[in-house]
Write a structure and sequence with these properties.
heterotrimer, A: 322 residues, alpha/beta, Rossmann fold, 8-stranded mixed beta sheet, 4-stranded antiparallel beta sheet, 10 helices, 12 strands, 30% helix, C: 390 residues, mainly alpha, 16 helices, disordered C terminus
């Protein structure tokens, strides 16, 4: 199966008053057609920055300093604004974090979706568009009356479904979902996750699912990557990583997740906090907190992913360990 | 306990420093500060010059000073029809160093002679940087005096107005009910009244001096629309959890008002204050321009005098009578407005660039 | 929505009563008036003074006079003007109002539109060099010393360059043997402008339903051009052919005042729009709009500006309130005989009936404008609209 997206050595940094913040450092991964890829990590590890850079939606003070992003074989880093605009939404679309606020409060929902469709398919008539929107609503489980409603008339869950419908409206090949269910309660979360999975199967889309909730990643994704302080520390098939976590960070993540099966176990957590990314020094950023340090650990050595198993990559220092 | 106070003080100092750094980032605010600073310098310069004797009060006093400017004039007879070879239009005759024989009443000089006469208003020279006005008073000194008036009037009325509206706004927000309804209707009433005609009426039955005008402007401004805005801001503070926790821990209403609500409303109030200085300066200039103000010297008065004496339409010939005053009003009012914009960016994080 | 409206009307009436009482007391406090100076004519016997006082109820205590005044107000009886006898205040106001309205309706629309456009562009170009100095220029045109600036304009365009007339609103020579009064022309001018604008607005609303953006733009352009052509036909048909000369005369005189006031007034709207847009641009839905692949211009206009419109429209309606306030200076300087000049003259000459009547008129005007502002804000923001329904 072909790779719909290939990210190679992506580096992105923000320039702030206090200095350069290297939010994404040397990130590489690929997503196949129809595959669902997860990115997990704590707050501030750079997951959202990666997502934003895929569509070049980063803030004004952010810049991609290195790397390639190959979408359908074409490098989209160097494209100018108008070329990017044609890829946005019809090639890659996105469901943002806190999608509730993605809606313009003074425009009806239907009109906002129609706007996206009009941009990429300018010759369709109003009826065709309406029919398409109703189909989408059907898929995500929304009532057809939502078309003429304003955003504040909908509940959180409805707005979220509408955002998914919006993301699907231009038949994209890849959808990026950045913590789409964080603000919702667990019941709705379950429903939304099912919708997303259904949609993906029905339409054959690729999905990048970003979350800090490792349980959701386990449920939703085929392959995954674990990020820490701007770099990927472990990457591979989800099942493999869960059954055989190699990196200290991944292990700590899994150990800190409570489980309702098995004996009652005291949860372990990591001391310290993530490093400040402002004017960061070179070297392994996890070294200060790593609980499984060995004598061979050299904190000044840069991270480097090495394949240990079938498609299972991990940082070099953990490659030889068990 | 003392250590707490020290910590609080150092936090406050640090936050003031941070705010200042943010303010410096705003280009508009910095331009405004420079302009205001310049005029402040002007208003302080004048008493300094008088006190240290660099300027002779008899000559340079803006109201009662008098400066003689004698000069040689060539007597001419201005033709009735224009244009001629010498003059292009009526205002060109007499030219700078000439004098029309028809305006000479007590001299028997003939056309073609030169006479030694007093020239008022005098154009800018080394002695008088901006020249003199028709009464022989130094224009630059007048500008500085006007600057003092503008500052005093502006700051006085702004402080008064903001004090009143903050007080009323927070009271309305906190005591609610009838008090709120009454205060809202009152500010509706004030909003309804047109400001300028109201000022005319007030000036008709009491002679307005600077202080009176400041009080009137401050009161009208304070009781008007700003109460509504401050009230809504105070309401937003009221619903915050820390207010409830302050109530629970036994704080009285007044206490909460002062130690919690006011600091949160203060940025908005500061903003209002700066913007109302702009309005105060403008209103004062307009009123003195129309001759309704009993004031010794102000920028508006300078233009009023120029108009009354007929110098306005002489155009560029007597520019120093018209331009400095008009530009001063424009720039000082604008300067305060820019400072307000800069403050806006500091206090409202959504307006910042990043 | 209706409940909200009724509540506001009820409050309106109370405030208006308070306003009437306040204005009467205020005017009463002015020592002396033109009428008294007339009465002090030494040729009148002293009994005349007391008789007149009794006749007009001028010697009664304050509260009785206030009641009398309010009664008369609702009867429509405002007495006679002191200095322009025998005209009544109502006649004077009716004569002057169309002139002020015409001038300031024009000014408000033009300055609002320009200000919104400029503010929109300014906010979008945040941080660039041009933005800073354009904003600073706008600030200075906002705070410019208005009488001085107006006089400068008059001098440059009226005197030095001789392009535009210096004052008044018509050339007496042209109107010497005109069969129309200026009021009639004014009224027909106002009717025309109102007609034009309402047709334009209707067309705007009708073309909303066209799906394709470019087709919509073409339709609107075509309809606008059609309107212009129709206007030519309108002014050349029937009675309007004769009125044309006089109407143009008035329009020609309007150019300079409108231009001057617009220069000063647009800045307020521009700065407000800029600030509001800057706040809106930080909202999340702006990011979504960008992600959808829409062009920058469209994002600016249909997302950011739409949201910034609410406070700007409210302030627009509030500036309608200050029409008369602002017109005082303009009309004095440009010798445009309208409401502003009326109220200034009547206060300075102590012509109390006229002053009070115009003051009350301004008050009604302001109240209605506030009321409209509240209603339209509730309508424009769907959140408030739905809330007040539910």
């Amino acid at each position: 199966m072909k790779n719909i997206l290939e990210v190679k050595n992506l580096c992105m940094s923000y320039s702030t008053i206090e200095g350069e913040v290297e939010a994404v450092k040397d990130v590489s991964f690929s997503v196949k057609e129809g595959e669902s890829f997860g990115i997990v990590g704590e707050s501030g590890c750079g997951k959202t920055s990666v997502a934003m850079s895929l569509l070049q939606l980063q803030a004004d003070n952010g810049k991609i300093t290195n790397g390639q992003i190959l979408f359908d074989g074409k490098n989209i880093v160097q494209l100018n604004e108008s070329e990017l605009r044609s890829i946005r939404w019809s090639g890659i679309s996105m469901v943002f974090q806190g999608a509730m606020n993605s809606w313009n409060p003074v425009v009806k929902i239907g009109e906002q979706i129609r706007e996206a469709i009009r941009e990429h398919y300018p010759d369709k008539s109003k009826d065709e568009n309406t029919k398409k929107i109703l189909e989408l609503f059907n898929i995500v489980g929304l009532d057809s009356s939502v078309i003429d409603r304003y955003p504040h008339e909908l509940s959180g869950g409805m707005k979220q479904r509408a955002v998914i419908a919006l993301a699907l409206s231009c038949d994209p090949k890849l959808i990026i979902a950045d913590e789409p269910t964080t603000a919702l309660d667990v019941v709705i979360q379950d429903q939304i996750l099912n919708e997303i999975r259904k949609v993906q199967e029905v339409l054959g889309l690729s999905l990048i699912y970003i979350s800090h909730d490792i349980a959701v990643i386990a449920e939703m994704t085929d392959n995954m990557a674990v990020m820490y302080a701007g770099s990927i520390v472990e990457r591979g098939p989800t099942k493999e990583i869960f059954s055989n976590p190699r990196h200290s960070y991944t292990k700590s993540l899994l150990e800190s997740t409570p489980s309702i099966v098995g004996d009652k176990v005291k949860l372990k957590s990591l001391d310290g906090e993530p490093p400040s990314l402002i004017n960061k020094e070179p070297g392994c950023s996890f070294a200060p907190r790593c609980p499984y340090k060995e004598e061979s650990c050299n904190p000044l050595r840069e991270m480097e992913l090495i394949e240990i198993n079938n498609e299972h990559y991990v940082d070099a220092c953990n490659a030889g360990k068990l | 306990m003392d250590k707490q106070k020290d910590i609080a003080k150092s936090i406050r100092r640090a936050s003031i420093k941070k705010n200042w750094a943010m303010f410096k980032q705003s280009k508009l605010g910095m331009i405004g500060i420079y302009i205001v600073g310049f005029f402040l310098f002007l208003s302080l310069l004048q008493p300094f010059l008088f006190v240290t004797g660099i300027w002779n009060k008899g000559i340079y006093d803006p109201v009662v000073g008098y400066s003689e400017q004698f000069q040689d004039f060539l007597v001419v007879d201005c033709p009735k029809e224009y244009p001629t070879e010498k003059y292009k239009s009526r205002t060109d005759c007499p030219a700078r160093n000439e004098i029309n024989i028809r305006t000479l009443f007590y001299s028997d000089a003939q056309v073609g002679e030169t006479i030694y006469q007093n020239l008022q208003p005098a154009p800018p020279s080394k002695k008088h940087i901006l020249g003199t006005d028709p009464l022989g008073r130094d224009v630059f000194s007048q500008i500085m005096e006007g600057s003092q008036v503008a500052f005093i009037l502006g700051l006085l009325s702004a402080t008064l107005g903001v004090g009143i509206s903050t007080l009323l706004g927070t009271i309305a927000a906190f005591y609610g009910g009838r008090v709120d309804a009454y205060l809202m209707r009152q500010s509706d009433l004030i909003l309804m009244l047109p400001t300028l005609p109201l000022l005319f009426i007030i000036s008709a039955f009491s002679e307005l001096k600077v202080w009176h005008l400041a009080v009137v402007l401050g009161t009208i401004g304070g009781l008007g629309g700003s109460v509504i805005t401050i009230k809504s801001q105070a309401l937003q503070v009221k619903v915050k959890p820390f207010v409830d926790s302050a109530r629970i821990t036994g704080g009285s209403r007044m206490n909460i008002l002062f130690s919690h609500v006011l600091p949160n409303v203060a940025p908005l109030a500061l903003l209002f204050m700066v913007f109302s200085v702009t309005g105060a300066i403008a209103s004062e200039s307009v009123l003195s321009f129309l001759g309704l103000l009993n004031i010794d010297m102000s920028w508006g008065l300078m233009i009023y005098l120029a108009q009354v004496e007929g110098y306005i339409f002489s155009g560029m010939k007597f520019w120093w009578l018209i331009l400095p005053a008009g530009l001063s009003v424009t720039f000082l009012a604008g300067g305060f407005y820019l400072v307000g914009r800069g403050l806006d960016e500091v206090f409202n994080p959504r307006l910042r660039k990043r | 929505m209706t409940r909200y409206i009724i509540k506001r009307i009820y409050q309106l009436i109370i405030v208006f009563f308070l306003f009437l009482v306040t204005s009467y007391v205020l005017f009463d406090a002015i020592p002396g008036d033109a009428f008294q100076s007339l009465l002090l004519n030494p040729n009148l016997p002293p009994e005349a003074y007391t008789r007149v006082e009794e006749l007009f109820g001028l010697n009664q205590p304050l509260y009785k006079r206030v009641i009398l005044y309010i009664q008369n107000f609702f009867k429509g009886d405002f007495g006679y003007s002191y200095t322009r006898y025998p005209k009544t205040p109502i006649e004077l106001i009716a004569e002057r109002l169309p002139r002020t309205l015409m001038l300031f309706a024009m000014v408000n629309v033009v300055s609002f539109y320009t200000g919104f456009l400029i503010g929109k562009i300014l906010a979008w170009r945040r941080g660039s060099k041009s933005e800073t100095w354009i904003t600073v220029t706008s600030v200075f045109s906002y705070t410019v010393f208005y009488p001085w600036f107006a006089l400068m304009m008059l001098w440059i365009f009226g005197y030095k360059l001789d392009w535009l007339p210096i004052g008044k609103f018509l050339y007496p020579e042209t109107w010497y043997d005109s069969p129309y009064t200026s009021d009639e022309i004014f009224v027909s001018l106002i009717k025309y402008v109102a007609l034009f604008s309402s047709v334009q607005i209707l067309l705007f609303i009708f073309t909303r339903n066209i799906e394709s953006i470019s087709k919509r733009r073409n339709a609107r352009l075509a309809s606008f051009i059609t309107l212009i052509v129709l206007s030519f036909v309108y002014w050349n048909s029937g009675d309007f052919v004769n009125q044309k000369i006089y109407a143009f005369n008035i329009a020609y005189h309007m150019i300079l005042p409108v231009f001057t006031v617009t220069v000063v007034a647009f800045a307020g709207t521009a700065l407000l729009t800029r600030t509001t847009m800057m706040e809106v641009m930080k909202d999340d839905f702006m990011l979504t709009a960008r992600a959808k692949g829409i062009s920058q211009k469209r994002i600016r206009d249909r997302h950011a500006a739409r949201n910034a419109l609410l406070p700007v429209v409210t302030s627009f309606i509030f500036t309608i309130v200050t029409i008369i306030d602002g017109s005082v200076l303009t009309e004095t300087i440009f010798s445009w005989p309208g409401m502003g000049q009326l109220i200034l003259d009547s206060v300075l000459q102590e012509d109390i009936p006229v002053a009070m009547a115009s003051f009350s008129f301004i008050g009604i005007f302001a109240l209605i404008a506030h009321f409209l502002a509240d209603i339209s804000y509730a309508y424009l923001d769907p959140r408030i609209r739905i809330q007040s329904q539910g």
